[in-house]
Amino acid sequence: MTLPDGYSAADGEAHVLTMVHNPERNRYELHDNDRVVGSSIYGRRPSHQVVFTHTEVDAAYAGRGLAARLTRFALDDVRANGGRIIPVCPYVTGYLRKHHEYDDIVDLPQFRMPNERRGATS
Question: Among 4, 41, 61, 89, which is least packed by CB within 10 angstroms?
Fold first, then answer.
């Protein structure tokens, strides 16, 4: 997906920002021409759940709303493919708190204390 706001940098070159899904690397990527400048990393569970663990955009691209656009692209792709979202990444978690249109496909992460055993009772 090409972002509608191509821009020219101080170097005078035209920059084309695109977003792609790179399933071989388990991440959604933001590209500036051929360079990866942002990503949202995930893991998959057999139950069609996609666990988002980290989202990052290069500091040189900060303040443009690109992390939000990349996150929306990733979440829309998960939805389109019948998946469910488990937000572990703080950025994705914060995004979902503001964008309730994804509530129907969100599963909250289940955490256990380190000394907690499966099936143990107190």
Answer: 4
The answer to the question of residue 111 being in a domain is no
Residue pair 103/109 in contact (Cβ under 8 Å)? The answer is no
- Provide the residue range defining the domain that includes 48: 7-105
CA–CA distance, 55 with 81 (Å, rounded to integer)? 20
pLDDT tens readout for residues 47-76: 899 999 999 999 999 999 999 999 999 999
CATH of the domain at 86: 3.40.630.30
